[in-house]
């Protein structure tokens, strides 16, 4: 119940209580004291007057009390209203008071002032206020008021613009409340404040404008901007970041980037604590320009530069700026490549369109001598040597201007004045419109190349050791000489010179010594001939001298050639000082003439070779002219070689066996000697075909055949009680022995024929053993391990010293038949034989003498201590059947009867 209703009810109750008491008590009281009715009526009238007086007094009293109370309340209210009005006005806000029913309004002094009026100047009605509202705000404001009054919300507030006295507009915040309603509940009074918010509105607008400005900037910035929170990762970002990282908005928000790998500039893994965002948050400082490689699942790498700054309002967040530097990095690396390319071995100069030098590289300086500083601003003509004329340059520029490029060799001048050959390429650089902006010259110094070319030419035509023309140049000159001899009808000669015993020198003193000898020989040869003649090194220890302009008569020409040959012999015969050694050498010369008769170069060289071969054969240190008979021999040789190739498969070889006996002529072994039964020539002696086989490598299959046949023979012998201890000697040639698998071959044969290896004796010659002593020892030792025996054949003809012999695992020395032959008559042979036998004894080796033909020879040998013999005296080499027949005889007959 409302306050005023309660008050009215209280008054009514007091009045009702008094009236009821009066009615019920006053009549009873009068009736008890007044008994007559006249007096009673009279007193009842007086009682009525009293009632009126008392009730009036009561009403007066109650009304007075109530009014007094209302007045006090109102006064209090007024006072409090005044106080808050004062407070509000003091705070700068205006106050208003409005009766919605009467539209009467009160606007405080401050209210008026805010919009430029003096107190009471503004019409005191609500409608006057409405009339001053901004047209854009009016409807909104009225609907807010309407809404407030009907919705009975507690507080009304609205912002609007109101026209000031001077016509300007001010933003006002009006706040108020309904303070009373009439008995029907209709709004009776609204009061409120009126604050000037114009400045706030301006500020807000500014903020909004700024916000929009920054937002737009954020959106269109080509660099990625993001807000990173140390816990939640990227919380806000602009579209550029999505574009740079190539990730969708959702992906960024879901943290898909966590799956990526991050790289340092050196491509190594970057840890999270190195990220600029996390560092900026942790260290609370700006972290700038950290280069990060973002490696995605696809393997693609995006290179970024990231800066981060902590946010002052949130210590766990920062703003990061991400720039895509992938292209820049690419460009930088291309730039590095370009810079490196610019600094190549080739000189580079760049000019402007007017041919003024702008830049040169280090190689340019190295080649020309001009530094970059000296070259800049100059015309490249600075390098001109004067060797090319004006028309050369005009052709060059014509080419550049039409085709855009010129390339060629040119002579230029260095800063020090030296003129040098150069390879130059000039390229015109054009802009988009086809206008020349620059010229680029690339130059390389050809000085060294030319020298190298010269050197290569020298290598191609000259022997590097002796500096003499080589085979190629000789043949070239021979061709010219032959043509010239035809033209001039003269004779020329080719001398083929071979140094005697050069191989022995090389083997004994080593190759460097051999080289020194060759150099000295070359000098002597050159000084032995005329200037126009050619001295060449043909290969190894072979030299060829080409002589021209001899007499047209071949005999005279031959004697002229012989004279030169003699001069050469004389020169080469002189002792050589090689290092500290004095060396005496001789040579063999093969000569042939050439003239107008048509001959091929090959033929001519072959003739000279054959002649030289003949000279060697004839005892060395001689000059031999080629003659056709000689050629015939060679032809035969070649044919023989062809036949030899087929000999094995045609089963034309046979082994003959020659008995070996002891002092009492008791057979203890044999030597296997090969025989070739040629279908046309009959039996060919090994002396004829073994050297040929050695030259052509045919000795390898032949030698193997001999070994295998010998092993097969041993196998048979060892199973026969009478021959079980028989040792079979087999000749082994140098080439055969030097085969890398020779030991294996022997071992396999021993195994294959299951022979006692000690029954196989390999005969080696001195010269082949000393060729490479270390390898020889290794091979011999390996064979020795197998149990094979060794005999040193032709002993005494070579150069073997005791020192070498000691190192060889030999079993036997074989005295060469040349010493045996004259032993009865030649004291020196006897001495040699004695020495050989003494040597063998001192080395604990057996000795056997070969070629023993007479009793006398045997006697002499026996007297010197030789106990084993081989020779026609005991038996010639014979086929196996014959051998075994006579062997049987000798084994069952007295020893002396073992003759063939
Ligand atoms: N005047 C004379 N000569 C005698 C006498 N006793 C033996 N001869 C001969 O002297 C040579 C001894 O063989 P060689 O010094 O190893 O010399 C052998 C050997 O170096 C080589 N030769 C023979 N067969 C083979 C073979 O199977 N392989 C190899 N690599 N060389 C072989 O051929 C050379 C010549 O062999 P042959 O003509 O068979 O000549 C044999 C033999 O018939 C004699 O009392 N008086």
Automatic annotation (TrEMBL):
Domain EAL: from-to ranges: 637-891
CDD domains: EAL (cd01948), GGDEF (cd01949), PAS (cd00130)
Keywords, ordered alphabetically: Membrane, Transmembrane, Transmembrane helix
One Pfam family of this chain: PAS_3
SUPFAM superfamilies reported in the protein's UniProt record: EAL domain-like, Nucleotide cyclase, PYP-like sensor domain (PAS domain)
Domain GGDEF, chain residue ranges per copy: 490-628
GO BP annotations, alphabetical order: cellular response to nitric oxide
ATP-binding as UniProt keyword: no
InterPro entries named among the record's database cross-references: Biofilm_reg_signaling, EAL_dom, EAL_sf, GGDEF_dom, Nucleotide_cyclase, PAC, PAS, PAS-assoc_C
Residues of the PAC domain: 156-209, 406-458
Name of the protein: Diguanylate cyclase/phosphodiesterase with PAS/PAC sensor(S)
Organism annotation: Gallionella capsiferriformans (strain ES-2)
């Amino acid at each position: 119940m409302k306050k005023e209703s309660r008050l009215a009810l209280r008054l009514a109750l007091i009045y009702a209580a008094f009236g009821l008491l009066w009615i019920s008590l006053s009549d009873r009281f009068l009736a008890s004291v007044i008994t007559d009715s006249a007096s009673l009526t009279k007193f009842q009238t007086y009682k009525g007057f009293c009632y009126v007086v008392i009730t009036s007094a009561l009403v007066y009293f109650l009304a007075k009390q109530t009014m007094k109370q209302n007045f006090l309340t109102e006064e209090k209210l007024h006072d409090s209203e005044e106080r808050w009005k004062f407070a509000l006005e003091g705070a700068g806000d205006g106050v208003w008071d409005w009766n919605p029913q009467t539209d009467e309004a009160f606007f405080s002094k401050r209210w008026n002032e805010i919009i430029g009026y003096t107190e009471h100047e503004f019409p005191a009605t609500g409608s006057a206020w409405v009339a001053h509202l901004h047209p854009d705000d009016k409807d909104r404001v009225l609907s807010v008021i309407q809404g407030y009054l009907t919705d009975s919300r507690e507080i009304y507030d609205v912002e609007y613009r109101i026209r000031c006295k001077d016509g300007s507009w001010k933003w006002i915040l009006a706040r108020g409340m309904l303070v009373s309603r009439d008995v029907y509940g209709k709004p009776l009074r609204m009061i409120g404040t009126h604050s000037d918010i114009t400045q706030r509105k301006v500020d807000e607008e500014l903020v909004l404008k700024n916000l929009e400005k920054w937002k737009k900037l954020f959106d269109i910035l080509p660099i990625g901007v993001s807000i990173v929170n140390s816990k939640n990762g990227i919380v806000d970002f602009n579209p550029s970041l999505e574009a740079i990282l190539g990730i969708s908005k959702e992906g960024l928000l879901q943290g898909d980037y966590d799956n990526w790998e991050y790289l340092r500039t050196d491509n190594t893994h970057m840890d999270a604590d190195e990220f600029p965002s996390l560092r900026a948050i942790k260290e609370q400082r700006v972290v700038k320009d950290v280069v990060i490689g973002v490696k995605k699942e696809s393997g693609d790498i995006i290179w970024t530069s990231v800066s981060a700054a902590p946010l002052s309002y949130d210590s766990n967040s920062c703003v990061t700026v991400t720039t895509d530097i992938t292209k820049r990095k690419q460009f930088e690396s291309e730039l590095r490549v370009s810079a490196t390319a610019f600094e190549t071995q080739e000189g580079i100069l760049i000019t402007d369109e007017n041919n003024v030098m702008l830049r040169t590289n280090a190689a340019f300086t190295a080649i020309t001598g001009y530094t970059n500083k000296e070259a800049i601003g100059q015309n490249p003509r600075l390098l001109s040597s004067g060797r090319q004329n004006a028309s050369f340059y005009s052709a060059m520029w014509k080419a550049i201007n039409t085709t855009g490029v010129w390339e060629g060799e040119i002579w230029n001048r260095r800063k020090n004045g030296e003129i040098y050959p150069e390879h130059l390429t000039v390229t015109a650089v054009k802009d988009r419109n086809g206008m020349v902006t620059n010229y680029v010259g690339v130059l390389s110094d050809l000085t060294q190349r030319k020298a190298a070319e010269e050197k290569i030419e020298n290598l191609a035509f000259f022997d590097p050791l002796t500096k003499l023309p080589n085979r190629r140049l000789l043949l070239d000159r021979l061709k010219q000489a032959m043509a010239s001899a035809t033209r001039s009808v003269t004779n020329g000669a080719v001398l083929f010179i071979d140094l005697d015993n050069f191989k022995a020198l090389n083997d004994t003193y080593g190759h460097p010594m051999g080289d020194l000898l060759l150099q000295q020989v070359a000098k002597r040869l050159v000084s032995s001939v005329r200037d126009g003649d050619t001295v060449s090194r043909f290969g190894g220890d072979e030299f060829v001298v080409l002589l021209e302009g001899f007499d047209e008569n071949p005999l005279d020409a031959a004697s002229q050639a012989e004279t030169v040959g003699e001069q050469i012999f004389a020169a080469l015969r002189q002792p050589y000082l090689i290092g500290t050694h004095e060396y005496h050498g001789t040579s063999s010369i093969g000569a042939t003439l050439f003239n107008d008769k048509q001959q091929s170069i090959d033929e001519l060289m072959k003739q000279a070779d054959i002649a030289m071969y003949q000279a060697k054969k004839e005892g060395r240190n001689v000059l031999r002219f080629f003659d056709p008979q000689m050629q015939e021999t060679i032809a035969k040789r070649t044919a023989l070689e062809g036949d030899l190739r087929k000999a094995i498969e045609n089963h034309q070889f046979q082994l003959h066996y020659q008995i070996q006996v002891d002092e009492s002529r008791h057979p203890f072994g044999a030597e296997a000697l090969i025989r070739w039964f040629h279908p046309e020539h009959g039996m060919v002696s090994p002396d004829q075909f073994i050297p040929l086989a050695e030259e052509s490598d045919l000795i390898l299959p032949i030698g193997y055949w001999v070994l295998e046949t010998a092993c097969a023979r041993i196998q048979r012998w060892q199973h026969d009680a009478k021959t079980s201890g028989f040792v079979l000697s087999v000749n082994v040639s140098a080439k055969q022995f030097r085969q890398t698998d020779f030991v294996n071959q022997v071992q396999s044969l021993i195994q294959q024929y299951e022979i006692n290896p000690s029954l196989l004796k390999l005969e080696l010659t001195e010269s082949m053993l000393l060729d490479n002593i270390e390898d020889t020892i290794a091979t011999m030792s390996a064979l020795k391990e197998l149990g094979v025996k060794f005999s040193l054949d032709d002993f005494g003809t070579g150069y073997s010293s005791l020192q070498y012999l000691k190192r060889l695992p030999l079993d036997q020395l074989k005295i060469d038949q040349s010493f045996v032959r004259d032993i009865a008559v030649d004291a020196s042979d006897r001495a040699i034989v004695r020495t050989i036998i003494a040597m063998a004894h001192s080395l604990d080796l057996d000795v056997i003498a070969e070629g023993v033909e007479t009793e006398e020879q045997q006697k002499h040998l026996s007297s010197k201590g030789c106990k084993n013999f081989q020779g026609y005296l005991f038996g010639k080499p014979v086929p196996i059947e014959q051998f075994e027949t006579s062997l049987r005889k000798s084994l069952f007959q007295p020893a002396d009867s073992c003759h063939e």
